[in-house]
Specification:
alpha/beta; 12 helices; single chain; Arc Repressor Mutant, subunit A; elongated; D-Maltodextrin-Binding Protein, domain 2
C-alpha cells in the first residue's frame, strides 16, 4: 500500500503547482513535502513530478494522483454513510468537451460547493482516452467506447446548428449551400479533432467536401467568429438561440440540425463516492440536452 501522507503531498504539489505552496496547504515544511515525494517515488519506482514552474506530473504521477483522489472519494462516501461531515474537500478529475462546459455542465459543479474539480477539456470522441489512461475518474463522452471498470449513462444529445452571419451567407452562399460553395467558403473548427463540420456536410450534402478551415479552440470565440463573418460553423443550439432569433446569425440549409449523443462514463472504483456528482451531472444535462 502507498502511504496516505505521501499521496496527499503528491496531490497537493500538483494542485498548487509548487512544493512550497503544498507545504503551506498541508501545514508542514517544504522539506517534509520533498521527503514524502522522494519516498513515494522510491516506492513507485518512477519519477512522479517534473520539477518545473509550475510543477507537473509525469504519467505515473497522474495515475497516483488519481489514486489519491479515489481514496478521498471513498472516505467521503464513508463519512456520508456514517452521517459525519468530511474532514477535507473532495477532489474529482473529469474530462469534458468544451461545448458541454459552455452550455450545461457548469451547473452540475455549482451543485457541489464543497468539492474541488480538475477539468480536462477534450473532444467528446476523445475524452474517453483520459479514462482509459486512468487520469480522470469520469468523463462526458460520445459513447463510442465504454471503458472497462466504468458505468455508462446516456445523458441526451447536444443539438448543433450550422450557422453564419447574414453577410457571410450573402458572400459565400448566395446561390445556396452547395458542395462547390463549401469547397471555397471558410469554415470554423475547434481543433484538428473537431469533425462536426465534416459530419454535417456529409449528412446534408451527401458527400465529403474538402473545406478551408479556421481553427479556434474556444466555444465563445467560435461563436464570436461566426457572428463577425469569419466563417461558418456548427454551434450548440443553446448558444446561438438568441442570435438566430434576432437575425444576427442564419441557420444554413433551413436549420438542418446535427444531434450529438453524450454519455457520462464514471469509474466504479470509488464506489458511491462519485454518486453526488453523477446525480448533479444528470440533472444539469436534463435541463438542456434532448432525447435522453
Amino acid at each position: 500500500m502507498f502511504d496516505s501522507a505521501q499521496l496527499r503531498a503528491l496531490a497537493a504539489v500538483l494542485s498548487t503547482g509548487s512544493f512550497d505552496a503544498a507545504a503551506q496547504a498541508l501545514h508542514v515544511t517544504p522539506s517534509a513535502i520533498s521527503q514524502r515525494i522522494r519516498a513515494l517515488e522510491e516506492r513507485a519506482g518512477a519519477t512522479l513530478i517534473i520539477r518545473s514552474q509550475p510543477a507537473r506530473a509525469t504519467a505515473a504521477g497522474l495515475r497516483l494522483a488519481r489514486h489519491a483522489d479515489d481514496i478521498g472519494l471513498l472516505e467521503a462516501g464513508l463519512f456520508r454513510d456514517l452521517g459525519l461531515a468530511p474532514d477535507s474537500r473532495v477532489r474529482a478529475r473529469v474530462a469534458v468537451n468544451a461545448d458541454s462546459l459552455a452550455t450545461w455542465f457548469l451547473p452540475a459543479l455549482a451543485d457541489l460547493p464543497d468539492w474541488l474539480f480538475d477539468l480536462e477539456i477534450d473532444d467528446q470522441d476523445h475524452s474517453v482516452d483520459w479514462l482509459t489512461r486512468g487520469e480522470v475518474q469520469a468523463a462526458v463522452t460520445s459513447g463510442r467506447k465504454t471503458v472497462a471498470g466504468c458505468d455508462q449513462i446516456a445523458l441526451g444529445s447536444l443539438r448543433y446548428i450550422a450557422t453564419a452571419s447574414p453577410a457571410y451567407v450573402q458572400r459565400w452562399f448566395a446561390q445556396g449551400v452547395t458542395a462547390e460553395a463549401l469547397a471555397h467558403a471558410p469554415a470554423l473548427a475547434f481543433n484538428a479533432k473537431d469533425r462536426l463540420q465534416q459530419d454535417w456536410v456529409q449528412a446534408t450534402i451527401g458527400r465529403a467536401v474538402p473545406m478551408p478551415c479556421h481553427r479556434i479552440a474556444s466555444s465563445t470565440a467560435f461563436l464570436d467568429a461566426a457572428l463577425l463573418g469569419v466563417g461558418w460553423g456548427m454551434n450548440p443550439e443553446p448558444l446561438v438561440r438568441a442570435a438566430l432569433g434576432d437575425g444576427r446569425l442564419v441557420a444554413l440549409c433551413g436549420g438542418a440540425p446535427l444531434d450529438v449523443a453524450l454519455f457520462w462514463q464514471v469509474a466504479r472504483l470509488p464506489g458511491d463516492g462519485l454518486a453526488p456528482l453523477t446525480r448533479a451531472v444528470r440533472a444539469a444535462a436534463k435541463g438542456v440536452l434532448i432525447n435522453p
